[in-house]
Amino acid sequence: MKKITRVLIYSFITNTFLALIKIISGIIGASGALVADGMHSLSDTITDIFSIIGNKLSSKPADEKHPFGHGKIEYITCLVIGVVVALMGFSIIYKALTEEANVPSLFMAVIAIVVIFAKLILSSYILKKGKQYESNLLIASGKESLSDVISSVVVLIAIVISQLGKVNSIFMYADVVAMIIVGILILRISYNIFSENISGLIGEQITDKDYMSKIEDIISNYKEIKKIDSVVVLKYGNIYQITSEVSMDANIKLKKAHDILDVIESELKYYDNRIEHINIHINPYEKN
Questions:
Q1: CATH number of 209-284: 3.40.50.880, 3.40.30.10, 3.90.1150.10, 3.30.70.1350?
Q2: Which residue ranges make up each domain of the chain?
Q3: I need a surface site. Which of 13, 56, 172, 219 has the fewest CB within 10 A?
Q4: Fold held by 2-203
Q5: Distance CA 265, CA 272 (A)
Q6: Rounded to 10 degrees, what is the CA torsion of 95, 96, 97, 103?
Q7: Beta strand extents in 147-274 (DSSP E only)
Q8: Cβ–Cβ < 8 Å for 215, 233
């Protein structure tokens, strides 16, 4: 968990720096799109704060009231991130529709290029670590950062096109159009965050065929296990719970059956240290 927090802190510092550069430069250079892009980066810093808090809370160990730990706090935190991102998207679109069009300074294009490269490096880093640590928080933060790269590219194009506004006033609206596009991109990321984490909050099971096949192989590796009747792996944030039913010989001694299941549980936890809770029910085997 400390590794995840460290990544989030790096992201927070970088996003804050980039947001200030874009907002200040956008105001000075009269680029509403760059200011909007800066607000997008600012939303990253807000989501990073929520992510750090959520990561801290979700890592709390199990207690009497929460026997499966506090992993689902991670999903709740991601949903809060989704709300923050959505509000940011709507506010940018509203601003685009209510402010006057103008021609920003061409130097803003240089700022946009620098930001694009910096943000691309950051988003790639966060997503890589998110997949490595299998953290929904990092993946959500990384996707939001990646959308910032796309929005910065849109802003760069708009700044260049808007320079033609000196020839024809219609090109002045390129900056306004870019703001709307940035807002839509932000709303799209918000939707993705919601759709991915609501499922986990309700109760999501692992459906990866290779993963489930490995779990079944471990369980069925003993001749005493005649058949696997069912196996379900549920996610509780970064904690997994396995519930399974297996068929064994009806005449097997209780002690032997108990010992076999103990070994299976140890092997499952060794295979994946996210598996903390295992419940295997024994059914009497019937050939028919």
A1: 3.30.70.1350
A2: 2-203, 209-284
A3: 13
A4: Alpha-lytic protease prodomain-like (1.20.1510)
A5: 11
A6: 130
A7: 204-205, 225-236, 239-248
A8: yes
What gap in Å lies between CA 211 and CA 238, rounded to an integer?
16
Sheet of strand 239-248, all strands in order from the earlier edge strand to the far edge? 204-205, 225-236, 239-248, 275-284
Nearest to 6 by CA among 138, 131, 116: 138
- The pair of three-digit structure tokens given for residue 70, joined into one six-digit string: 């506090």
User: At 37, which amino acid appears?
Assistant: D
Give the residue from 139, 134, 138 showing the smallest Cα distance to 52.
138
Which pLDDT tens digit goes with each residue over 29-61? Answer: 888 888 887 877 777 676 666 666 666 666 666
CA angle 33-34-37, nearest 5°?
90
**Other Cβ atoms within 10 Å of 66 Cβ, number:** 14
Phi, psi values for residue 272, rounded to 5°: -145, 110
Cα 185 to Cα 37, 145, 189, 227, 240, distances in angstroms: 11, 11, 6, 49, 33
Q: Measuring CA to CA, which residue among 207, 231, 234, 222 is closest to residue 281?
A: 231
Contact 171, 165 (CB under 8 A): yes
pTM score above 0.70: no
Q: pLDDT (tens digit, 9 = 90+) per residue, 205-263?
A: 777 888 899 999 999 888 888 888 989 888 776 678 888 999 988 888 889 989 999 99
Q: What is the DSSP letter of 61?
A: P
